[in-house]
Specification:
The chain is built from 12 helices and 2 strands. It is mostly helical. The model is unreliable at 212-221 and 227-240 (pLDDT under 50).
Length: 240
C-alpha cells in the first residue's frame, strides 16, 4: 500500500521513477514508455503523486499544499502566465508536452473535484492554473481528437499518449467538454483494434470511468461545477 509518508519520501529524494513505479503497483495504469518519459520531470511525479494523495486523505494536508505549491511554482517558472491558453508544461528540452500538462491537470483537477470546499484562498489560484492547463491541452488536441507529444514518433505512440490522457482526465472538471472528450474516446475506439495491449487497457479504463456528456461549448471549472448534475451513484471505476 502506497502511504503518504512513502510519497513524501520519494519526492523529497527526487526519486521520481520510484514514486511512479509505486503508483503503478498501487493501481495506476502506466505503461513503461510513459513512465520513462514522466520520470524525467518533477511535474509528472508531483501531479500523479498529488492525485493519489487526494485519494488517501479526507482533506488537504500539509503535503497536499506543498505539492500544489510546487506544481504552481514549476508552472510559473516556465515563463508562461498562469491561466494562459498556452499554459502547456514544457519537457526537459523546452517543448510543450501534452503528457506532462495532463499530469499537472490530473493532480490539480483531483484536488478541485474532491477537496474544493476546503482549499480556502488557495482555490482561486488552483482553478486558474488548472484552467490554463486544460486550455493548453485543448490547443494541442488534433482535429481527430487525439494528442501527440514531442517524443511520439509513430501512430502507436500517439494512441498510447492519447489513451493515457483520457484515462487520467475524462472525468476531471470540464475536461470532456473543453477537450472534446466524446471525439477523443471515439477516435481511440476507432483505432482500438490496431493499438497495443497497454493502450487498449487504458481505453477500456477511460470508457468505464464516466459516461461522456456531449457538450460543444467550452466551460471553466466554475461553470462545469455549476452545470454538473448531482451524482446518484458512485463511479464505475475506483480511481487508481
Amino acid at each position: 500500500m502506497l502511504s503518504i509518508s512513502t510519497i513524501d519520501r520519494a519526492l523529497e529524494q527526487r526519486d521520481y521513477d520510484r514514486l511512479l513505479r509505486d503508483l503503478g503497483r498501487n493501481g495506476l495504469v502506466m505503461p513503461l514508455p510513459l513512465r520513462v518519459q514522466l520520470a524525467e520531470s518533477a511535474v509528472g511525479a508531483c501531479g500523479l503523486g498529488l492525485r493519489r494523495l487526494v485519494e488517501l486523505t479526507y482533506g488537504p494536508t500539509a503535503l497536499t499544499r506543498q505539492l500544489i505549491d510546487k506544481l504552481i511554482r514549476v508552472h510559473a517558472s516556465s515563463g508562461i502566465p498562469t491561466g494562459s491558453s498556452h499554459s502547456a508544461i514544457p519537457d526537459a528540452a523546452g517543448r510543450p508536452s501534452c503528457l506532462l500538462t495532463a499530469c499537472f491537470a490530473a493532480g490539480l483537477g483531483r484536488v478541485l473535484r474532491d477537496h474544493a470546499d476546503r482549499l480556502g484562498d488557495q482555490r482561486v489560484e488552483i482553478e486558474s492554473a488548472y484552467d490554463g492547463a486544460v486550455s493548453a491541452l485543448s490547443a494541442m488536441q488534433g482535429a481527430e481528437g487525439l494528442f501527440a507529444g514531442p517524443q511520439d514518433r509513430h501512430e502507436r505512440d500517439r494512441l498510447l499518449t492519447s489513451a493515457f490522457i483520457a484515462y487520467l482526465l475524462i472525468d476531471a472538471p470540464g475536461f470532456a467538454e473543453r477537450c472534446r472528450g466524446h471525439a477523443l474516446l471515439s477516435a481511440l475506439e476507432d483505432h482500438h483494434g490496431e493499438c497495443g495491449p497497454a493502450t487498449a487497457e487504458l481505453i477500456d479504463m477511460a470508457r468505464l470511468t464516466r459516461l461522456l456528456p456531449v457538450a460543444a461549448t467550452p466551460v471553466t471549472v466554475q461553470q462545469a461545477k455549476q452545470a454538473e448534475p448531482a451524482r446518484t451513484q458512485p463511479s464505475l471505476l475506483t480511481a487508481a
